[in-house]
Design brief:
The protein has 554 residues and is an alpha/beta fold. The chain is 17% helix and 31% strand.
Length: 554
């Protein structure tokens, strides 16, 4: 029995010894942690308070934000690495180092930044003037304005003319690993997934939907990105989607600035309101460029709108557009329009005309070669219009300016014996309104359609023909007009006359309109008191004068 008690005491002593050692170790660990917490509690460098940045849309931003955010490389946690940026068409690299972008607006000092998550801005980001160098990698995330915020996303303040230019570079080296679903609404806007049940319903019902790879810049109310005078902008693999503005809803390039777009997507942006400079309208649903713009890779500028029309890349009179060193891929597509005739100097023998389409129906893209290099010219659209009367008659061809009506082109209604002319028809079978502007996309043929005129019975002829009935001025004009055509006289003169200028225009019958225009231009009909008095009966004196004047035309 005594031996058992001795054994129990020995075991108890051993347990107490082990507990004592553990307690000492725990105290040491607690002391180390306390020391670490004390070090972490040391006051950090105080960041300047944020101040307001202009929220108005900057065509050429002159103001800089006062708040400055500097890039400081954040230490990586255990098992993680800092952002390793893979520059476009280069191997992965760690230099220069990139710091997380955590501010929600204000001035960005020179440095390299990247997004660690989607970021909503309370105010625009500003790149300072005169030599600032800022690089931002979207890293597959979205940069947008917060709900209720106004203005652009990021702008480069106007630099002094003789100073070093500020340079903003935006890229996305992680675009292939992220994507966003969207559908196209009735207004042509791209609506992205916001996680709501309403969006899911609309997405399922939409006829046009897709997914966009990579991060995006979105939600601006005064244009997404603006580069002021004497600065440079470089965009690579960047999606600029669903922004609004009065002009340049996606990108604004000032007159003395330059921008390079390589494999970017600028789509679904829209103009709100109207912008004018020197009484000229300024557009650019996707991009407004008054400076130098270089395009390359798979860059696509499509699906942007001004009011109810396509308006993608708008070139102002001072703009210079060229193709980059790597050329344009086949899938690149740019809708373009402008304030004046523009020439695109490609620097290549390749024909890039298929990469461009004209947004404006009054403009077209033509191709020419100079010294072995292709030149694309944005110019006023003129097409060949062929009018085919049918039944063996020779077709008539004329040069038709886009937007002119058949009436403005002096196209006359043809005549055939015992046939009624029904109108000019397209190859698709649509009747062309002679007074409406023509929307041509190339050389076009219009064909006349006829119906057999019903023969007039002898009884009807007796009832309708009255040799003693008086004749009105427009009936006399019709008779002389037909005689002039049979005699081969020029009956096209006067077809530009606007009959609505006369107070009695509503009394001119449709079938007499061309005759009245011709008679007025030939001075066979004269205006009095703002009227032509076409419904008045002719006196013998007036008829005599008309006949004498008609004979003078022969």
């Amino acid at each position: 029995m005594q031996k058992r008690w001795i054994s129990l005491l020995l075991v108890l002593a051993l347990v107490l010894a082990v507990w004592s050692v553990c307690a000492v170790a725990a105290d040491a660990q607690t002391a180390d942690e306390a020391a670490g917490e004390e070090a972490a509690a040391e006051p950090a460098a105080e960041e300047p308070a944020e101040e307001d940045t202009p929220a108005e849309e900057p065509a050429a931003p002159a103001e800089e934000a006062d708040t400055a955010f500097e890039a400081e490389e954040a230490p990586a946690e255990d098992g993680e690495q800092n952002h390793i940026h893979a520059a476009n068409r280069e191997d992965s690299c760690e230099e220069p180092s990139f710091a997380p972008l955590t501010v929600t607006g204000g001035k960005l000092e020179s440095g390299c930044y990247y997004l660690t998550d989607d970021l909503a801005l309370e105010e625009p980001l500003c790149v300072p003037k005169n030599g600032a160098q800022v690089t931002l990698c979207l890293n597959g995330h979205t940069l947008r304005l917060a709900d209720g915020a106004e203005g652009c996303i990021i702008f480069v303040a106007v630099s002094d003319k003789d100073a070093e230019p500020s340079v903003l570079t935006i890229t996305d080296c992680n675009g292939a690993d992220s994507s966003s679903n969207y559908y196209v609404d009735e207004d042509g806007a791209l609506v992205f997934d916001d996680g709501s049940y309403a969006w899911q319903e609309a997405y399922i019902a939409a006829s046009e939907k897709n997914a966009l790879a990579g991060g995006r810049i979105t939600g601006a109310t005064a244009g997404a990105i603006s580069v002021g005078d004497y600065n440079e902008l470089y965009l690579t693999n960047v999606n600029i989607i669903d922004n609004a503005g009065r002009y340049g809803a996606g990108v604004v390039v000032a007159e003395h600035a330059s921008a390079v777009l390589d494999s970017c997507v600028i789509a679904g942006n829209r103009l709100t309101g109207e912008m004018k400079a020197s009484e000229k309208q300024i557009l650019g649903g996707g991009v407004y460029c008054a400076g130098t713009l270089e395009l390359s890779g798979t860059t696509s500028i499509t699906g942007n709108r001004a009011q109810d029309a396509q308006n993608n890349l708008w070139l102002d009179e001072t703009a210079a557009l060229k193709i980059g060193d790597l050329g344009l891929d086949k899938q690149a597509h740019i809708g373009v329009s402008g304030a004046a005739e523009q020439t695109i100097l490609t620097g290549y023998a390749d024909d890039f005309s298929e990469n461009f389409t004209s947004d404006d129906l009054t403009l077209t893209i033509s191709t020419a070669r100079e010294n072995g290099f292709t030149e694309l010219t944005l110019q006023e659209a003129v097409y060949t219009l062929t009018l085919d009367p049918g039944e063996g008659s020779e077709p008539v061809t004329l040069e038709a300016e886009q937007g002119k009506s058949l009436h403005e082109l002096n196209v006359q209604a043809p005549e055939r014996e015992n046939m009624t002319f029904d109108g000019w028809y397209t190859e698709e079978g649509d009747c062309v309104d002679a007074e409406a502007p023509l929307h041509l996309t190339g050389d076009t043929t219009l064909s006349a359609r006829w119906t057999q005129a019903e023969p007039q019975s002898a009884e009807a002829a007796l009832l309708t023909y009255d040799p003693d009935a008086p004749i009105t001025k427009q009936e006399a004009a019709k008779t002389l007009y037909q005689m002039a055509r049979q005699l081969g006289l020029d009956t096209e003169a006067g077809q530009e006359v606007d009959l609505t200028q006369f107070e009695d225009a509503d009394e001119i019958s449709e079938d007499a309109a061309d005759a009245v225009r011709w008679a007025y231009a030939a001075d066979l009909l004269t205006e009095k008191d703002g009227k032509l008095h076409v419904a008045d009966e002719l006196t013998r004196k007036e008829l005599t004068r008309m006949l004498e004047d008609f004979l003078d035309l022969i």
